Input
Amino acid sequence: EDGLMCLWFHNYRMSLRDIRMIVRTFIEVFPNSSLWFAMPADCFLIGRKNPSDRPSLAVVNERLARSRGATFDLSHVHILKPTALTTCFLLGPEDLRRFSSGAPMNTDDHPILEFSAPRNLQSDTLASNFAALRAARAEDSQPFVDLDPALKESAEFHYYNAVALEYKDSVTQAALEARKAHELAPEWEQARMLWE
Output
């Protein structure tokens, strides 16, 4: 009841209908879920049953401080500060409900995905699927319950987001974050170099 469930799925060569079906099936069991990505091609549904258990940046900070292994692993995808995890967030619980509304369920008795997924193996769906997922996010959807709005106005926040986004090939978003970091701290050499 108090644990987490993580489901990886790829966002390429798959129909949007199948992605909506995966999400709908997952949130039926884990209603308090969120969707994250490492690269646009790789998505992770993180689910909880407890509706009051929402991700906390303070808890993430505390656990990463105790786990050099997790910190090391995250550095390989250029997540150098816990706040940069915000660049991996796609959809919160309400976003997922709206996104998957009306989608069919994939069940043991009706394994629809097993038959529909192969139909798209030659389809180039990555960009359109990722755009649809991004568009499903409400403006006020937040990855962490305790994300301080003032933090978003710090140069460090934008700098480390830029580093993470650059790794994800989100060049335009990375440039916007780097520019904001440079504007907030023009004397910071690293931010200037990233911006240029």
Observations:
- The chain has a mean pLDDT of 89.
- The two ends are 48 Å apart (CA to CA).
